[in-house]
Each structure stands twice: as structure tokens, then as C-alpha cells.
Amino acid sequence: MANLRAAELVAGFLQGQVVQARARGTARGEEDADSLEVALQCVARIFGLPEAALADTQGLLNLVGPISANAQADELKNKGNDFVKQQQYDKAAEAYTQAIALQPTAIYYGNRAAALTNLRRFEEAVDDCNMALLLDPEYTKAYTRLGNALAELGRQQEAEVALAKASEPPKPAATTSSTAQPEKSRGFPASAASSGPAPTAPTPTPAP
To answer: What is the pLDDT of residues 173-204, one digit of tens each?
Structure first.
């Protein structure tokens, strides 16, 4: 089950990369997309992913257009944020899933992890946090959400490690000047989606 879930996450990431490559509208982009689709097919075949689990990447691109793919993903993210504010976490998770299919980013995976945590789907939330951290190891809120989800699963030692990572000061950003500036946090707190700075995420509210 864990291997299948990991395969689905990898497949989702590859789908988003295919869309991004084709959105370039260049010959090189088409070549990259073709190579990514071969990798996607290999993952699907090796792990026996059902066809329904694979998004129609060309259909997604036809729907949003090459120029607006990124904007459409951001719009879906904002829609998911609105659903979180309304405590409609299942709809929020679906909106973030669609955003990931168009543009897999650490923030989108982290946002979906927050929604899944509120749905008490903690194993899936852990997977999404790990994917977010793979894409952006400095994404502090992903460590917070990972720690919360692991704690809910009773994996206290791992939870403490993740939460300790979340409390570490950010590493200085690369700069050409003599004084480095701290990197700003990204994303929104696990309990509510917002664009402003967020405190440590509270324990998720159980789904009714």
C-alpha cells in the first residue's frame, strides 16, 4: 500500500512536469514531455497503477492553454484555500490535486497535506509533506504539518524530529552582498489557508 501511494505521488509529479514541458510550446519542450511520458508509463506499468489514476496531460493542456497553465494552477490553489476557510477539506484536497497535476510545487503538496490532515487522512498527509520537502527542503510549514500528522499516527519520535526542524531558524539566502538576508517562509498554516505569515499549526480539527 505504501509503495502504491508513493508511485501515485511520483506519477502525479511526472504528469505536472509533462504539462509544464508541453506548455513551453517549443520543440525541446515536446522532446522533454515525450521523455517524461515514457517515465510515467514505466511507473504505471511497474506498480500497476490503474488508468483512472493517471491524468490526461494533453487534455489538461488543451483545457488551460500553454500560457495560462501556471495561472490556472494558482487559481486552483486559491480555490482550495477558500475551501479550507469554509472547512470543506475534501473539496480543498481535490482542488490542490488538480493544481499539482498542472504544476507540482512544494506549496501545493503542503496545502493538500493540510487538507488531508483535517480529513484525518494522516498517512497521505505524511506522504504529501515528504514530497513537499523533497521539492523544497527549506519549506518550514511542511515540517510543522509533517510533525502534526506523525503525532496523530502515534509516531512520536519522528514527530519530534520534524517539529524540531520546523523551529530551526531559516538558512541565510544566497546573496552577492556581504550581509545575507533570511529566507521568507512560504505557504499557509495547517488550520487555515491564508497569504500572511503563520504561527505553528494547531492540532487539526477532527472531521465530522
So the answer is: 555 444 434 444 344 444 434 344 444 444 45
pTM as predicted: 0.57
Q: How far is 142 from 160, CA to CA, in rounded Å?
A: 14
Helical axes 69-85 vs 89-102, angle rounded to 10°: 170
Tens digit of each residue's pLDDT (9 = 90 or more) over 12-31: 777 777 777 666 555 566 66
Amino acid at 171: K
Cβ atoms < 10 Å from Cβ of 72 = 19
Write out the DSSP string of 23-68: HT-SHHHHHHHHHHHHHHHHHHHHHT--GGGS--HHHHHHHH-TTT
CA distance 112 to 98: 10
Q: How many CB atoms lie within 10 A of CB 106?
A: 22
- Cell 500500500 locates to 1
